[in-house]
């Protein structure tokens, strides 16, 4: 869970009790993600850093800090050996944890969300010019652009469907939009409600989508 008070909060889902509070960011926390084993939390902040926290340790400080962003980190995604961040400075950064290398791709517009394809080959970046860009993860090559939603002022999330066949993104006007990944065409608009669709997540194996807007969480097929 993110917090406006520069803190990452870890909850026990069964009891509803706070397990840990991780402090170290000097600005509001925008985003968090777990690694596959839920042993590490990666958080991104408006202070321009991403920080890694060990959930098993009582150590109060981050185990690693990634300070390369020149503006706020708006989105983080974690794979088995990589951390991908999107930043308001217009860059998508990929940290290879095994090799200790950083790869950076310039989008040219503030990045509001990033997502990794299920097959690990592509990175999807949503930016504040109402455009989604599909990048080859290894080369940074632009594979496609997708538009038709509204995203110019607020952070709206994007993701892949459970089989990587579609790209999904929220919109500032209450819609969730779907594009065919191969053809690049928009195939569906779901009117969820009024207000910004700020967050969404696709089920890892079933055609089910979770969305949030105006303080409401909605799950549907």
UniProtKB/TrEMBL annotation:
<dbReference type="GO" id="GO:0000398">
    <property type="term" value="P:mRNA splicing, via spliceosome"/>
</dbReference>
<dbReference type="InterPro" id="IPR015943">
    <property type="entry name" value="WD40/YVTN_repeat-like_dom_sf"/>
</dbReference>
<protein>
    <recommendedName>
        <fullName>WD repeat domain-containing protein 83</fullName>
    </recommendedName>
</protein>
<keyword id="KW-0963">Cytoplasm</keyword>
<keyword id="KW-0853">WD repeat</keyword>
<dbReference type="InterPro" id="IPR001680">
    <property type="entry name" value="WD40_rpt"/>
</dbReference>
<dbReference type="GO" id="GO:0005737">
    <property type="term" value="C:cytoplasm"/>
</dbReference>
<dbReference type="InterPro" id="IPR036322">
    <property type="entry name" value="WD40_repeat_dom_sf"/>
</dbReference>
<comment type="similarity">
    <text>Belongs to the WD repeat MORG1 family.</text>
</comment>
<dbReference type="Pfam" id="PF00400">
    <property type="entry name" value="WD40"/>
</dbReference>
<dbReference type="InterPro" id="IPR020472">
    <property type="entry name" value="WD40_PAC1"/>
</dbReference>
<dbReference type="InterPro" id="IPR051980">
    <property type="entry name" value="WD_repeat_MORG1"/>
</dbReference>
<keyword id="KW-0677">Repeat</keyword>
<feature type="repeat" description="WD">
    <location>
        <begin position="22"/>
        <end position="63"/>
    </location>
</feature>
<dbReference type="GO" id="GO:0071013">
    <property type="term" value="C:catalytic step 2 spliceosome"/>
</dbReference>
């Amino acid at each position: 869970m993110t917090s406006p008070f520069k803190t990452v909060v870890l909850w026990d889902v069964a009891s509803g009790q706070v397990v840990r509070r991780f402090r170290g960011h000097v600005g509001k926390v925008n985003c968090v993600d777990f690694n596959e084993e839920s042993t590490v939390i990666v958080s991104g902040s408006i202070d321009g850093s991403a920080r890694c926290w060990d959930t098993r340790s009582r150590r109060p400080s981050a185990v690693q800090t990634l300070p390369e962003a020149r503006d706020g980190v708006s989105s983080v995604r974690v794979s088995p050996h990589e951390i991908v961040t999107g930043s308001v400075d217009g860059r998508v950064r990929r940290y290879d944890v095994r090799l200790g290398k950083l790869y950076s791709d310039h989008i040219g517009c503030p990045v509001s969300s990033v997502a990794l394809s299920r097959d690990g080959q592509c990175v999807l970046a949503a930016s504040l010019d109402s455009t989604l860009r599909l990048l080859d993860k290894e080369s940074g090559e632009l594979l496609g652009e997708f538009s038709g939603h509204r995203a110019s002022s607020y952070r709206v999330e994007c993701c892949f469907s459970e089989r990587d066949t579609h790209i999904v993104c929220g919109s500032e006007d209450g819609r969730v939009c779907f594009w065919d990944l191969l053809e690049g065409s928009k195939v569906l608009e779901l009117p969820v409600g009024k207000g910004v669709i700020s967050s969404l997540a696709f089920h890892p194996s079933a055609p089910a989508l979770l969305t949030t807007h105006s303080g409401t969480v909605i799950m549907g097929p």
